[in-house]
Amino acid sequence: MATTSAAAQAHASPLQGQQVILVTGSTSGLGREVALRMGAQGAHVIVHGRDEARGLAVVEQINSGAGSARFYSADFASFDNVRSLAASILRDYDRLDFLVNNAGFGSAPDERWVSEDGHEFRFQVNYLAPFLLTTLLKERIISSAPSRIVNVSSLAQSPIDWEDVMIENNFSGGRAYGQSKLAQIGHTFDLHEELSELGVLSNSLHPATYMPTGMVQRLGVTPRATIAEGADAVMNLIMGDVEGGQFFNQMTPRRAHPQAYDPESRKRLRVLSAQLTQGL
C-alpha cells in the first residue's frame, strides 16, 4: 500500500507558484540525482520508492536546501499500490508540473518473475505501472500546463510478441526488459498525440549507457557513463528547449524500434494496457 511518513512531510508543503515534480524511483541512482537537482532549483519534489529510509534521506537533503519534498512509498509490482500512490498525490497536490517515470527493473537476473497482479514482472514494473500512474494523474498534469512527462526508457528495445506478451515461452531477461521499454516509448508517442495541444510535452529517452546504478550492478558489467551524465539528459527533457513526441539517446533525438511508430501496434498496446490495468 502506498504510504507517506509524517516525518517526511516536515517543511514540505509547496509554496504558492512552486513547481511540483514527481520522480518515481528516486531513492537511489538516476532518480535520486534528478530529484536532488530539481530540489536545488527550488522545486517541490515528490520522492517515490520502496525504501522509506532512503526516501527520507533524500527528502531531508532537499528540505535542507532551496527546495521542499515529501516521500511516498509504493511497489510497482502491485497495481493497488500504484492506485494508492496516485490517490495520495491527487489528495495532497493541486498541481503536478512534471512527471518523470524513472522507476524500473533491469534485465538481470535472467529469471521470469510474476507480479502481484499475475503479469510478467518487468512488463508490469517498467511499463504497465507507469502507464496506470500516468493515466490516473493525467488530468492533474493537464490542469497544470504547461507541463511535461518524461519516460526514462532505453536503447535496449525488443518488439512485442502479441501471441506471447508475457513471454511464457523462450524467456530471457533481456527480451523482457527490451519489450517493456519499447512499450514505454510507444506509450510516450501516444501521450504526445493526445496531450500536446493541451500544453503537455511528452518525451522518452535513453539517459546513458551502463551508469553505476543497482540495475547495472546486478547485470555485472563495468559502468561506461556516470549518473551525472544520465541526469543531464533527463534534466534536458524536464527543463530544456525541446519538442515533444521524441525518443532521445541522451540529448540527441533518435529513431526507436519501428514497432513504436506503427499505429496498429500502438492501438493494440493501448487496448491491452487498459485491459490489464482494469479498474482505471
List key phrases describing it:
single chain, alpha/beta, Rossmann fold, 9-stranded mixed beta sheet, globular
Quick description:
With 280 residues, the protein is of the alpha/beta class. 42% of the residues lie in helices and 15% in strands.
Describe the protein's topology.
Layout: E1 3-4, E2 20-23, H1 29-40, E3 44-49, H2 52-63, E4 68-73, H3 79-92, E5 98-101, H4 121-143, E6 147-152, H5 173-195, E7 200-206, H6 214-219, H7 227-239, E8 246-249, E9 252-253, H8 263-276
Parallel strand pairs: 2-3, 2-5, 3-4, 5-6, 6-7, 7-8
Antiparallel strand pairs: 1-4, 8-9
Helix pairs in contact: 1-2, 1-7, 3-4, 4-5
Helix-strand makeup class: alpha/beta
What is the CA–CA distance across the termini? Answer: 17 Å
CATH topology: Rossmann fold
CATH class: Alpha Beta
Taken together, the total number of domains comes to: 1
Supply the CATH superfamily name: NAD(P)-binding Rossmann-like Domain
* CATH architecture call: 3-Layer(aba) Sandwich
Strand content: 5-15%
Provide the succession of SSEs.
EEHEHEHEHEHEHHEEH
Estimate percent helicity: 40-55%
> Within the largest sheet, what's the order of strands?
1-4-3-2-5-6-7-8-9
The parts where pLDDT drops under 50 for at least 5 residues are none
Q: Mind describing the biggest β-sheet?
A: 9 strands, mixed
